[in-house]
Each structure stands twice: as structure tokens, then as C-alpha cells.
Amino acid sequence: MEFLEKSREIVDRVCEIYVGDREMVMKVLAACLSNGNVLFEDYPGLGKTLLAKVFARVIGADYRRVQFTPDLLPSDIIGTKVWRQSGFQLVKGPIFTHVLLADEINRSPPKTQAALLEAMEERQVTIEGDTMKLEEPFFVMATQNPIEQEGTYPLPEAQMDRFMLRLSPGYPESVDEEVEILSRRISWMKDDPTDDVIPVVSLEEFREMQRIVEGIYVDESVLKYIAELVRATRQNELVEIGASPRGGLALLKISRAIAAMEGRDFVIPDDVKRVAVDALSHRIILNVEYAIEGVKPQSVVEEVLREVEVPKAPDMRS
Q1: What is the model's pLDDT at position 149?
Q2: Please, are residues 225 and 234 in contact by the beta-carbon 8 Å criterion?
């Protein structure tokens, strides 16, 4: 299987349905190749749910969607045991899938949000003392609305830290993009075209792509660069709590996927810089006075990228 060709085909197929930033679609693919979770945070109606659903179809994965609401229970996500005539039987929840879309994840209370923690990090769930592994690949794609606060529960830091990337689709960049969205709706003749999506790869082929990513070489100088970036977020005067070591691991994993998608078998610093803002900014908690003044965590990561010296190795291969 040609990795570069397949990854481009996946992005192309998704963009046949989803009209938006191709770079963001590439980052979603990179995160999933790294078995990472993705949080889409933006205004309503920008195609966040459509993107997640189309992506699952294109890679041949099973897909389940959970609409988070204030009355949603943990058992509604992971499942429970019920009494039948033959004894207690396990009723699996929608989390037993490959791609789980947690729609409007911040509309449920912390107890329900926490039902995802074990699955997001360890790829397993525990139901009444019994632990069950989830089939790979497994990743959570979640959406949340950043402007509507009534009836919502902010995600705890421990859960935010489990998302490899936080992405914002944004509004269409031009009138032409808006027209393209309308034109595609006419050509589909239905609101949900995802049932007609033909997978680019099988699930086993996608797992093989993930294994290829794990074999991408990372030079010691690039590892040091990642570590210095993460540490610099903790030392910035605007920051109360900086990125965790998990943030460094996220940068390592996804920079490997970016390198593979660019046709290289080694990581360069530009791969790290390309995803640093998306991988680190949501892990940063600003000092209150700066947050009140409107400082954004993204600007802290951008400042860190300017300040930390980039390694200048002529060849990153061993």
C-alpha cells in the first residue's frame, strides 16, 4: 500500500463532501493516524458533525453519534448490565465503535463527560468492575460551541488534555465557498450524503497506515525541540499552568503522521511547528488577569514558537 497516495485520496474524498479548509482535514487525518482524539470548537452550522461522519465513512470505520444533553447518563455512553432470566447481561453502549462523535460535549455534566476519560486515554472501558478493550482504531471526535454558555458545563482540564488537537473549522473564506456549499446540496438532493460515501481504505489498511506512522524516525534534536516548546509554555509569564508531558507526546505522535503524509520517513522541525498551536493551546491555562484582558492561549504558543531555537540539522535521518 502506498501511504502517500492513500492519505491524499482520503483527504480528497472527504473534501468532495466537506467544503472547508483542506489543511484542517489533513490535520484531522494526522490525528487519527496517531490514534488521537479531536475537539472541534466553533460556532454552530459550520460542518463539524458532517466532517466527523464523512471521515469515518472514508476510512471504512464504524461510527456512532451521541448527542450530549444535561440528562445524559454515563451508562448511556458506555453501557450497563441488565437483569435477564439467565442472569445479568452486558448491554454495550455507543462507545463500542471506531469513531465516536460526542456532539455538543459540554452540554452534559462532568460525571457524564468523565465516562469518556478511560476510553480516550486507555482505549478501554470498565462497566461494573469488568474492563473491556475497545477495538482499534478508536478515537473520539467531539464538538462544542464556544459562545453559548447557558446550560453548558466547561470541560475539565483532565479531559481537555486528552484531546490531541483542538480545531476550529471557521466560516467559509469566500463567496465562492458559500456558493459551492449550496451547489453541492442541490447535486446531492438530500441533506445527508454520507450514506453514498465509498471508503478509500479498509479498516485493516488504515491500521497498517497507523503502524507505518509508528515507524517514522525522529532525531534527538527534534525530540529536544518538542521538549523545549512544551517547557517554554510553562515558563511564560502569562501562563498559570502550561502544557503537560502529554502535550509533548501529542506533538511527537502527530508530527510523525505529518511527516509520513508529506512522503518522508523522518520528522523535521516544520512538522512540529505546523501543529504546535492546535496541539498545545488548549492545554494552557492563563493567569486570570491576562485572560480577562483577552489574551488567547494560541498567542502564547505562537510566542513560544518564535522564541525557542529551531534545530538546524542538515538531515534528520539516522
Answers
A1: 64
A2: no
Neighbours of 156 (CB within 10 A): 12
Spatial separation of the C-alpha atoms in residues 36 and 250, rounded to whole Å? 8
Does the residue 171 lie in any domain? yes
Strands 87-92, 99-103: pairing is unpaired
Residue 312 maps to a domain = no
Decide: 212 and 3 in contact? Cβ < 8 Å.
yes
The pLDDT tens digits of the residues spanning 64-117 come to 999 998 999 999 999 988 888 777 788 889 999 999 999 999 888 888 888 899
Strands 163-167, 139-144: parallel, antiparallel or unpaired by DSSP? unpaired
Q: Is 133 left (phi over 0), alpha (psi -120 to 50) or beta?
A: beta
> Are 253 and 204 contained in the same domain?
no
Reading the block at residue 50, the C-alpha cell is 458532517
User: What does the alpha-carbon distance between residue 56 and residue 292 come to, in Å, rounded to a whole number?
Assistant: 39
Instruction: Tell me which H or E stretch contains 243.
Output: none
Residues 267-279 as b or e (16 or more Cβ within 10 Å = b): bbbebbbbbbbbb
Dist. CA 201–CA 31, nearest whole Å: 17
- φ/ψ (deg, to 5) at 153: -130, 110
Residue 98 belongs to what domain range? 3-208
